[in-house]
Design goal:
heterodimer, A: Rna Polymerase Sigma Factor, Chain: A, Arc Repressor Mutant, subunit A, 2 domains, 70% helix, 0% strand, B: 704 residues, alpha+beta, Phosphorylase Kinase, domain 1, 13 helices, 22 strands, globular
């Protein structure tokens, strides 16, 4: 059954269809939320909240809407509602290779929401620009611009770290 | 160039390789602009750091909690509110109830269950039976060269269900195999005049594999308890004991009733801690797609046709159990190094060390001074021009096909949990459509409960489906009848991994090939140049075709163009020279599909597989979307589909179902825009690997 069909079935009260829908989307929704929030436990809670909102919203689902974009629309609102744990500034010395991942996580959390999510889609979920654009409801140029902006801020942060500064929020 | 333009090029350089002019302009700007230079340096560090953030996987329990709460809401019941983790008060990140998340970057070391028969198994642990003789198969018209079957009439590799139910309910202990009392072999059948072939000893190995041990444990649990000494002595219960016995029986029945009806709530079901089938399917798929590297020792016992000899240019095959023993080091961004031996038909058929990377393949075949050392620069990606370059070596077929089979399974069940060597394993059972790729109709897979990597994979097949194990021209029903004997089902393959280290750092030295000293390499050049998507228009003289119908998880991983002078090719160079040859490969994290396109002046007639040579390849015709293709299977080359689209001869090969290969060919179009973009798999910071010369693929979940 298609994902749209699952939503339709769920709207008719089919709990199995809802479960299947959740299990289908859980991996990417969780990956998105973990990237956005930078904390696995917060991501678990946010994922649970996302799917509760999905359950509440299945009756209002428009079958002409892409199911993935619809679910992500909800996940994005949940992520927006949750203020991520403030990022501590990167260390005052350039991150060593083994610290890069932690540096990247902290730097991501310091980015504004709209820049953070485009980085998460592109670098963590590895989505193509057209898919990102479709999900965000923007055109690909805006996706590129946001990516450049995000990378520039992160690179500035890297420079800041090299100078002993902080990531530009 | 102003700062804005420089920044735009910097950002662009993160996604694609800049053109020469752009690269030069940017370099000139950076030389004169300290600020942009510093920014560029930052980008060079920031981008790989972000790329190293692997997508995390939600713990199964977290999904279960989301399902429980959401379905409660869906039913119109009151929202129970956030359902907390069972150990939320403890806040222990290392709680055994929670799967480790994928943000862990350290290597995961798995101690797979010790194989019942280790690679170093002593010869006396194996029973060897000599075949009473050999028969040759009926000739097949389409085989270019005659083929000789060396049939074991072996007792099946691992006998399972007897054709007729045993008289006793208790499974009989595994008896030592007796050499079969077979009728005299029929006379050899030959298509061409050739000297008779002396029968060579054919062996049948009766291994006691890990999985058999586990199955026996289960059987033993079902056995009736042994008699007590008193019972054996014929002492019956004393008078008065009957009442006690009846009372105890009633009490036990009552307890049993409660346990059956409420047991799950009271005690927790024995299956309560088992993952759901859908979770296993998803997690096993992800373990391959997310896997960055793997080191493992493997044993693959496979019932198949093996070429044991060549006589008068005719291959002599044995339908018997072959045993591959070896180890592999696989790096997703670099290639692999595998070392293995193959024994079948009573002798060692192969002993090789192969190191494959994008730009060359090195092989040492054989031992000592008799070894052959071959270095092929710029090798093709796959047939028909050379050896197939699977991403997991021998494990590509043995293990790499498991995710797709699981994804297609309709009856997958997690039947139990076993602990071995301190590691939990989930036993998963499902049926599969018997094909030359699945090599079975039932699968028993033991996956590591922490990583979900399959560590034991067992395939079995019923007699009715056994024809898929080889070309019917060589694997005749007569041979199969003798191979199965009185057994309705046999094990066709058991793969066991051990000494597993997953996602460890692979150093360049790990891919070193130590050729015997004094051995000079035989250098060759496949003349295939790896190219990028951006170079298609400048380095190709024709418009290549790209598949628009591949399973969504396959991502383009490599493109290559043949730079050699066009020449005749195929079996005996019987096919006309193409004008151009182009290859593209797609990888889903577990297996690779290679598509070869030969631009011809006009279509040519072809009656057998281009890979036929002296191999017995069965070819069947498949129609798809109004187009006709041929599909070839053989025990020695990957499944492949081929045919013409216009004047272009196209071939797709890989360890995927026939339908995937044929659909891919049928969908080929001049629409590069629809090709999935290559995924940047730059080595993670801190991972020291030699720079890859090829774009590497990656993807999501495999499927059919």
């Amino acid at each position: 059954m298609t994902e749209a069909g699952l939503i339709t079935q769920a709207a008719a009260g089919d709990a199995d269809a809802l479960e299947q829908l959740i299990r289908t989307f859980a991996p990417i929704v969780y990956a998105y939320l973990a990237g956005m929030l930078g904390d696995e436990r917060e991501a678990e809670d946010a994922m649970q909240e996302t799917f509760v909102r999905v359950a509440r919203g299945v009756e209002r689902y428009d079958s002409s809407t892409d199911p993935e974009a619809w679910v992500f629309g909800i996940a994005r609102r949940v992520a927006g509602d949750i203020r991520p744990t403030p990022a501590s500034p990167p260390g005052e010395v350039p991150p060593e290779d083994g610290e890069m991942e932690e540096w990247a996580k902290r730097s991501l959390r310091a980015l504004p929401l709209e820049l953070r999510e485009v980085v998460v889609f592109k670098e963590i979920l590895r989505w193509k620009p057209d898919r990102i654009a479709s999900t965000l409801g923007v055109d690909e140029t805006q996706v590129s611009d946001r990516l450049l902006d995000a990378h520039t801020r992160l690179a500035d942060g890297m420079r800041g770290a090299n100078r002993g500064g902080e990531v530009t929020p | 160039m102003d700062h804005g333009e420089a920044r735009r090029l910097m950002a662009q350089s993160l996604e694609t390789k800049l053109g020469q002019d752009e690269e030069r302009d940017l370099a000139l700007h950076l030389v004169g602009c300290a600020e942009c230079k510093q920014l560029y340096a930052g980008l060079q560090h920031a981008h790989p750091a972000l790329s190293s953030l692997a997508p995390g996987s939600p713990p199964g329990e977290a999904i279960d909690r989301a399902v429980l709460r959401s379905t409660t809401v869906l039913r119109g019941e009151a929202d129970p509110g956030p359902i907390a983790r069972p150990n939320s008060g403890i806040d222990s990140p290392t709680s055994p109830d929670v799967f480790p998340d994928d943000y862990q970057s350290g290597p995961v070391v798995i101690h797979a269950p010790a194989a019942a028969e280790s690679p170093e198994v002593a010869p006396e642990e194996i029973e060897w039976h000599e075949s009473p003789g050999a028969v040759r198969p009926p000739e097949a018209d389409h085989l270019p060269l005659h083929t000789t079957i060396e049939p074991p009439p072996p007792p099946p590799m691992l006998p399972e269900e007897p054709a007729e139910p045993a008289a006793e309910a208790v499974p009989a202990p595994v008896a030592e195999e007796e050499p079969l009392d077979l009728p005299p072999p029929p006379p050899p059948i030959e298509r061409q005049v050739r000297p008779p072939v002396e029968p060579t000893p054919t062996v049948v190995v009766q291994p006691r594999s890990e999985i058999e041990e586990l199955l026996d444990e289960e059987r033993r649990r079902l056995e009736p308890l042994p008699y007590t000494e008193a019972e054996e002595a014929g002492e019956g219960p004393r008078p008065g004991m009957w009442l006690i016995a009846i009372a105890v029986t009633v009490a036990i029945a009552a307890i049993a009733l409660v346990l059956v009806t409420r047991g799950q709530k009271l005690l927790g079901s024995s299956t309560a801690d088992l993952p759901k089938a859908t979770e296993v399917q998803s997690r096993v798929a992800r373990v391959f797609t997310d896997m960055k590297s793997l080191k493992a020792t493997f044993v693959i016992q496979r019932l198949s046709l093996y070429r044991v000899d060549t006589q008068d240019k005719a291959a002599v095959y044995s339908f018997s159990e072959g045993k591959y023993r070896g180890n592999i080091i696989y790096d997703r961004a670099e290639g692999y190094r595998q070392q293995f031996t193959l024994d079948a038909g009573g002798k060692q058929l192969s002993n090789a060390t192969i190191v494959q990377s994008a730009d060359q393949t090195q092989s040492v075949i054989g031992n000592g001074a008799n070894a052959t050392y071959v270095v092929e620069k710029n090798p093709p990606l796959g047939p028909p021009d050379g050896a197939f370059r699977p991403s997991l070596g021998l494990l590509e077929d043995a293990i790499g096909t498991v995710p797709a089979m699981m994804a297609n399974a309709k009856d997958l069940k997690v039947v139990g949990k076993t602990q071995k060597d301190g590691r939990d394993l989930y036993e998963v059972r499902f049926s599969v459509n018997p094909t030359e790729l699945t090599r079975g109709d039932q699968m028993d897979v033991f996956v590591d409960a922490q990583t979900y990597l399959p560590v034991v994979v067992k395939r079995s097949i019923s007699r009715d489906n056994a024809q898929v194990l080889g070309p019917p021209a060589t694997l005749t029903s007569d041979v199969l009848d003798k191979a199965f004997g009185s057994n309705a089902r046999v094990t066709t393959e058991v793969t066991q991994l051990s000494d597993i280290v997953k996602d460890d750092i692979i150093l360049p030295g790990d891919f070193t090939l130590n050729a015997p000293s004094g051995l000079k390499p035989q250098q060759s050049d496949g003349n295939f140049e790896q190219i990028t998507q951006a170079e298609l228009s400048t380095k190709l003289d024709f418009k290549p075709l790209f598949p628009t119908t591949l399973p969504g998880d396959f991502q383009q991983s490599e493109l290559a163009v043949d730079r050699s002078k066009p020449s005749a090719w195929g079996p005996g160079n019987s096919l006309p020279a193409p004008k151009n040859v182009f290859q593209e490969s797609y990888f889903n994290g577990a297996t690779t599909i290679v598509i070869t396109e030969r631009q011809m002046t006009a279509p040519f007639a072809i009656s057998s597989s281009p890979l036929a040579a002296d191999l017995p390849i069965t070819v069947r015709t498949v129609n798809r979307d109004g187009r006709t293709f041929d599909y070839g299977v053989s025990p020695e080359v990957p499944p492949h589909a081929f045919g013409f689209i216009g004047n272009t001869f196209v071939m797709a090969s890989g360890y995927v179902p026939q339908s995937v290969l044929v659909k891919a060919l049928a969908s080929l179009q001049e629409q590069a825009a629809q090709v999935p973009a290559p995924i940047d798999l730059s080595p993670s910071p801190g991972v020291t690997v030699a720079p890859s010369t090829s774009p590497s693929g990656g993807g999501a979940l495999p499927g059919d």
